[in-house]
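# step 3/5: fold
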Amino acid sequence: MPVSSFEGQQWPNARSSGRLARLSEPFAPRAPRRLAVVDVLLKVGNGLQVLRAGRGRRNDQHIVVLTNYATPDIRRKSIECGADAVFDKSTEIDPFLELCRQYSAE
């Protein structure tokens, strides 16, 4: 599903994966995705499982956690499980968007 804008920024190539058939789906060797944004809390399972599944991803594929629960413990666990960065939804949107811009320029 296209995600054309977020926080007033245009992201013409962004897509929402919605529900995944397999946790590793966004990171398959031929997957065109270069950035996965994961929340720690999911309806089924949790974002840490997605992070672990992405450990074998290509060097040009990144995983960022965007959550309302960016406690020091969640940040540490997310990085240990393979996240490139962790952002709090309520206070760190600007740095999150800046990192997205950097990744899209690669």
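# step 4/5: annotate
The chain has one domain: 5-105.
# step 5/5: archive (pending)
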